[in-house]
# Entry
Amino acid sequence: MSASLDLRRLTTPQDLFQAAAEEVLRSAADAITQRGRFTIALSGGSTPRNLYTLIAANASTTLPWDKMFFFWGDERHVPLTDPESNYRMANETFLSKVPVPPANIFPVPAENQDASAAAQTYEDTLRKFFALQPSEFPRFDLILLGLGPDGHAASLFPETAALQEKSRLVVANRVEKLNTSRITFTLPVLNAARCVAFLVSGADKAAVLHEVLEGNAPGEKYPSKLVRPNKGKLIWFVDRAAASQLSTAA
Ligand code: 6PG
# Structure
């Protein structure tokens, strides 16, 4: 892990979500002041639920929602109404509770039976929104990520093909152990971000967090190790339970 690691240790999960919410709001304010808009890629899974709920409860009237644009760093290959959908989770806990214009929300078209086509469509959406040149990558203001128990981030699972992708923005990634394809940002997109923030909570993540931050295994085995923004910040929000196997002093 890079020496400039920004490891933010919080005591309880609630402290973690509060600190992460403050970072989201600070990032949004800075981006809108400097560039007139805020672009964020949301993460899925269960950890960010409480973050989204907290933001919706505390910022629904204070933010310039019309200048905020929401994407997803990965999505399950299911309809948006499916209980497994990352879009559905974020919409239920957050986006349906704040006055963000629907046109500012860009779900992955995961209802498409062809995962590769869904990935290509989403890539086209990114290229158009960010007005990218052919070899350019989008520079999100903030990308939120969780840490999977196997060290995956987004849907970049250990030893899967997407880890090798160097030019595409979004791909369908076959995850044999889940017997499914996931639609995911590639590493170049994650590493082009102005800021990437991992949220890691709970004792069940302690071993993998130690491996990712302090272990010597290759990134292909713990893909979160490969998330190192080229010209951006990398922040790890961890609670005490998740940090319990880290050797660094508290
Ligand atoms: C997903 C997420 C995935 C998640 C990690 C952690 O689609 O599930 O994008 O990368 O962030 O698996 O998940 P938890 O927060 O549920 O532990």
About this structure: The domain at 11-226+239-245 is CATH 3.40.50.1360 (Rossmann fold). The chain has one domain: 11-226+239-245. The longest strand covers residues 233-239.
